[in-house]
Amino acid sequence: MQDFTKSVIEIIKNIPKGKVTSYGQIALMAGNPRGARQVSRILHSMTRKHNLPWHRVINSKGMISLPIGGGYEEQCIMLEDEGVTFDEKGRVNMNKFSMTKSDLDVIQLIDENSEFINKIIDVEY
Question: What's the predicted TM-score (pTM) here?
């Protein structure tokens, strides 16, 4: 398994209940700022094997990427059960529900990737 894949899995495993993050944020934290699609593939292929909280990963617009009737409702319910709310357009307030630096302190990443953690915290939505 490649280091990027290992990092992505570890990051996703450690998204706290009631918090979300985007595919792009995960890619950036794992060391590949252009790897959002790769994160999506890893999430899809590794969720069962690693028991990943897949429902806590949303797109950069703060929206669920799954289509209605194709997992959207399940993801929405799972997030709402954790206290995550949606506005009238189906968006999550990323300022309120996105992982924070204190949330990331529990993630043990390779030292060379620590600069990415600091970069992502400063992203404004």
Answer: 0.82
State the amino acid at position 34 in one-letter form.
R
Backbone angles phi, psi at 58, to 5 degrees: -130, 180
Name which CATH class applies to 3-121.
Answer: mainly alpha
**How far apart, in whole angstroms, are the C-alpha atoms of residue 91 and residue 99?**
16
Contacts of 25 (CB under 8 A, 6+ apart): 60, 98, 99, 120, 123
Structure token pair of residue 25? 């944020």
**Contact (CB, 8 A) for 4 and 10:** no
Query: For 109-123, what is each residue's pLDDT tens digit?
Result: 444 444 544 544 444
Domain boundaries, the chain: 3-121
Q: How far apart are the first and last CA of the chain?
A: 33
Find, among 93, 79, 99, the residue nearest to 21 by Cα. Answer: 99
**117: Cα separation from own chain's centroid:** 13
User: Counting runs of H as helices and runs of E as strands, what totals does the chain give?
Assistant: 7, 2
Distance CA 55, CA 122 (A): 23
